[in-house]
Amino acid sequence: MVVGDGAGLVNCLDFSQNRFMTIWPPRAEELRRPAYRSLAEKLVQAIEAGELKSGDRLPTHRTLAAELGLSVQTVSRAYDDLVHQGLLIGQVGRGTYVRAAPAETRTPYIQDKQDGGVIDLSILKPVSTGMHRERLGQALGALGADLPMTVVSSFRPSVALNKYREPARGWLKLCGLEVDAERVLLTNGNTSAMTVALMTAANAGDLVVTEALSHHTLKALASYLGLRLRGLAGDDEGILPDALEQACAEEPVRALHIMPTGLNPTATTAGLERRRRLVAIARRHDLRIIENDAWGPLQPKRPPPLAALAPERSFYFTGFTKCLMPGLRIAYLVTPETFEQAAASRHLVTSWMATPLLAEIATRWLDDGTARALLDWQRTALGERNALAERILADHQHAASPYGMHVWMPLPQAWSEADFVAHARLQGVAIAPGSAFAVTDPSPPGVRICLGAESLPALERGLEIVARLARSQPEPALLAI
Asked: Using CA atoms, how far apart are residues 288 and 268, in angstroms rounded to an integer?
């Protein structure tokens, strides 16, 4: 579909047939004030419904304004809002195009926060302040005075990184996992670790099962690796053992990817008995377990990792970007003994090795207590933010972890995810739709609201806007298809 070539909407799209069954282009009487917001909502609905597809060119600002009886400035503002949201892309001299295809995985967060008025509750990150910048600056200053030669010149992973494995054991022990240093592989963050784990645990064509709502890059990553992915039903503790058992009975399953400690989009944490039952099923059907524990020891008094219960079949990874600071992109991947060399080889061909400079900083912070101090600080900051979210969202169904970075909020029946996210964005708040994490469609409608990216006053304003929106009803005229 090509929408708009400067010659007017009527010539670009035939809507004489079934006109009342289409979303785009809208009619002037369907728009409500403020018109720019209403127009932007119509565009979002058309993209989500597939009427506007990736690469479709939109009418020029002037053409659309003339057709709808709006000012050029109104159309420009609607387009600009969706460019900032990542749904459209503007190219000077060529026009405005739809950026994202509904069938493809989109990042759940806004791509470019150019608009300072947007309260970004869409991106999952820890609380960061000037203190974190100062700590990293101090670490870099100390390195300047005492920089190991291996950080500068080593090109062999075994030479550059072996000395960082032993200190990693202390951090992993905080996560509930005691391992030999030889089983620890350093990677450039959790995404790199997840990639290596998937490549090692499964082969092209194998079936991997996971939560119905899982990590937002998992679906695309599995596709690139030629893996089949299936989401399983869950409850307030995550994946249901019966759902895993049934999947294994229906066809061979190679691996279980799981986020059992609050990190998953619905913020569920599996209790010890649930973990034991899942491990028992994995052993019975010879499944490999890929345990994504990116938050690490952020949640105190948590059950032991599945990797502690079934070390012989578990690929476990955790890092520092989510629990200490985003810029410290180092993670630890622990593999079963029989897969140590295979994982190292796959990491070698995909990333060669983790960055020694960051590994050096992380290790120094482990040794001098900085890592633990930053962890304790982060727990306090996120605890305060979770208490704030609990107060503001008290009248709405929601789920969270006491020290987690996000809240999951199922939507009231009147709202669709696309409309709720669009309304929130046009009121100045960015949140993530549940569909961005869906492995198997349809998924339960809901939104992920992140707590760490903004200042505390901005977070409070954003949560209040979301709460008011959840109490309201969408306008029928805006939602009609």
From this structure: 21
Calpha distance 7→9 (Å, rounded): 7
pTM, whole model, 2 decimals? 0.79
Instruction: Compute the radius of gyration of the chain from its Cα atoms.
Output: 24
Q: Which of 370, 459, 446, 354 is nearest to 408 (CA)?
A: 446
Q: How far apart are CA 115 and CA 194, in angstroms?
A: 33
Name residue 332's beta-bridge partners: 186, 318
User: What residue type is assigned to position 274 of the chain?
Assistant: R
DSSP annotation of 438 reads B
- pLDDT per 10-residue tile (average), the chain, 481 residues: 36 37 80 86 81 85 91 89 78 75 56 69 96 96 92 82 94 96 95 97 96 95 93 96 97 97 96 98 98 96 96 98 96 97 95 94 97 98 98 96 96 89 91 92 87 97 97 62 34
What count of Cα atoms within 13 Å lies in the side-chain half-sphere of residue 67? Answer: 21
How many helices and strands in the chain, by DSSP H and E?
19, 17
**208 φ, ψ to 5°?**
-115, 130
Distance CA 452, CA 443 (A): 25
Euclidean distance between CA atoms 18 and 29, whole angstroms: 17
Task: Compute the distance between CA of residue 407 and CA of residue 385 in angstroms, rounded to an integer.
Answer: 10
Q: How far apart are CA 256 and CA 409, in angstroms?
A: 26
Q: What is the pLDDT of residue 30?
A: 85
Instruction: Let me know the angle formed at the C-alpha of 251 by 250 and 256, rounded to the nearest 5 degrees.
Output: 105
pLDDT at 11 (0 to 100): 34
- Token readout for 332 is 């630890």
Rounded distance between C-alpha atoms, residue 408 and residue 410, angstroms: 7
CB 319 within 8 A of CB 354: no
Largest CA distance in the chain: 74
Characterise 238 by phi-psi region: left (phi > 0), alpha (psi -120 to 50), beta (else): left
Q: Report the C-alpha gap between 320 and 175 in whole angstroms.
A: 12
